Amino acid sequence: MAVSRRLFVTATSAATALAVTGVAAPPASAAADGPRQLIPVSPDDTEADLVRKASQVRPTARQIAWQRLERTAFLHFGVNTFTGLEWGTGDEDPDVFQPAGLDTDQWAGALRDGGFKLAILTVKHHDGFVLYPSRYTDHTVASSSWRDGQGDVLRSFADSMRRHGIKVGVYISPADENQYLHGVYANGSTRAAHTIPTLVDGDDRTPQRSYTLQATDYGAHMLNQLYEVLTEYGPVDEVWFDGAQGHIPPDKVEKYDWDSWYSLVRTLAPDASIAVSGPDVRWVGNEGGSAREDEWSVVPVTEKDNGRTDFALAYDAADMGGRDALVAARPVADYLQWWPAESDVSIRDGWFYHADQQPKSVEQLTDIYFRSVGRNSVLLLNIPPDTDGLLPAADVVRLREFRERVDRELPEDLAAGARTAVSPGRVTLDLGTEREVDRVRLAEDIREGQQIESFVVEAQLDGAWTEVTRAGTVGASRILLLAAPVRARRWRVGVTGARAAVRIAEFGLYRSRV
After folding, report:
1. How confident is the model at residue 361 (pLDDT cuts 50, 70, 90)?
2. How far apart are CA 489 and CA 511, in angstroms?
């Protein structure tokens, strides 16, 4: 999507806009400590303190790059594809894994044609079956007769994605039913120093550097698998964890070694975002692909369980970062953090392939797009390969139709090249001639944080400025669908509430062709 121009509402103009709405502008000393990804908070902080601190939080370079992806893909594939389960048991016969027609280039081509920029493979799901020949478990593709035990789905996946210009992501499940059956997962072991990689019999590796990290027995198992994945398969752009515990007796628990896992990922893949049980990306709170109407990237967090970044409020709270949310989280929050939302959903009802399910309609996917990408979130759409190792033909067609539909919903930006005027708290566009508009796209320059709390879009009709639509947050991406097309030459957006100086990176106007 082309950015129409980079526009700035200066600190002076932002302060003026805030004064108009009765909200005090932040003091000049507000940024005395300097912007950073997370800022400590205290139960003694006032609402004004919390808002000031929130205005100072900034994303890292890896988070900015991640938020620009907009559409990412998930590929749930493994023994569940062949057993029909959604959550495996860990005692599957590896020989059940038989994707005779595996073609990861077909996956990559379909994702590219669907407009996806990154794809995440379930390298290991909760059952513990691993899609590459790991040294640390026999529950892998190497124990299947598929390709005479020489198959490596991760290798094929990574190579294909890069050939097609798609970034590579990996999901490695913290839960592991197979390792529980082998007495490693949730065995009650205490944390101790482990050398990573832990060399095994016949190991021909000569690592230039090893790492000493604190972990349980199972935590070390995860570290060794992370080391394999992050050193033997090329650059990885996202490492995706969830926080699920295995289906184990209630008196057992595996306390995950988040701090050590994060440390190893940061060392071996410094540009990779760690999601969604991670410090870079958070789960939006549902599996329907829908972000909140006002979605904040700056949210209150707590630090739990060996350094895990966790929600200070309920994961599905209606407000995650507004003023009321900042105050509500005050008794338990440790930090305000740049922690943007990822909206996950599957193209089918299940996460793994089931022959009796069909993909969502183009209309459903388009609605999900506007409720995720259009609300300051990144869409994570799951497209599960089938038992042949292919993306189903119906899904491939639907992905292309989805991309074409979005292109028709947001064709060329009518504001490209428009004359622009910036005045206190407002940006005005002159299109040169009257044009019909039914889609408005806005973005803040998130390098300067997320500041807009409310705004109004107006068009000049019969010589008078008339409100067309209004909303709350903007962030990295806000798309508003007008109830009916509006024809006007001059348009403007006015910031009616903000936390600090606002920088608008995009003010796009579109006429859909649907």
Report:
1. very high
2. 13
Q: What mean pLDDT is reported for the chain? A: 93
Query: Can you tell me the distance from the alpha carbon of 278 to that of 166, in angstroms, rounded to the nearest whole number?
Result: 22
State whether residue 172 is helix, strand or coil.
Answer: strand
Nearest Cα neighbor of 237 from 248, 249, 229, 228 is 229
User: CB 490: neighbour CB atoms within 10 A?
Assistant: 18
| Contact predicate 253/186, CB 8 Å | yes
Distance CA 267, CA 243 (A): 22
Residue 294 three-state SS: coil
Instruction: Tell me the residue length of the chain.
Output: 514
Give the closest residue to 238 by CA, choosing from 164, 288, 166.
Answer: 166
Separation between Cα atoms, residue 307 and residue 331, nearest integer Å: 19
Q: What is the pTM of this model?
A: 0.93
Query: What own/partner pairs with CB < 8 Å and gap ≥ 24 does 186-190 have?
Result: 186/218, 186/246, 186/248, 186/252, 186/253, 186/254, 187/216, 187/217, 187/218, 188/252, 189/216, 189/217, 189/218, 190/216
Distance CA 132, CA 224 (A): 13
Structure tokens at 217: 């027995």
Q: Is 250's pLDDT higher than 50?
A: yes
Closest CA to 311 of 340, 288, 333, 328: 333
Terminal Cα distance for the chain, rounded: 17
Residues 241, 277 contacting (CB under 8 angstroms):
yes
Separation of alpha carbons 426 and 493, rounded Å? 6
188: helix, coil or strand?
A: coil
Distances in Å between the Cα of 7 and the Cα atoms of 128, 302, 348, 422, 445 are 49, 35, 40, 8, 9
Distance CA 3, CA 343 (A): 23
Q: With beta carbons less than 8 A apart as the criterion, state whether 226 and 172 touch.
A: yes
Q: For 461-499, what is each residue's pLDDT tens digit? A: 999 999 999 999 999 999 999 999 999 999 999 999 999
Residue 43 has pLDDT above 60, yes or no: yes
B/e letters for 80-89, b = 16+ CB within 10 Å, e = fewer, are bbbbebebbb
Phi first, then psi, for residue 226 (nearest 5°) are -60, -40
Structure token digits, residue 343: 């909206």
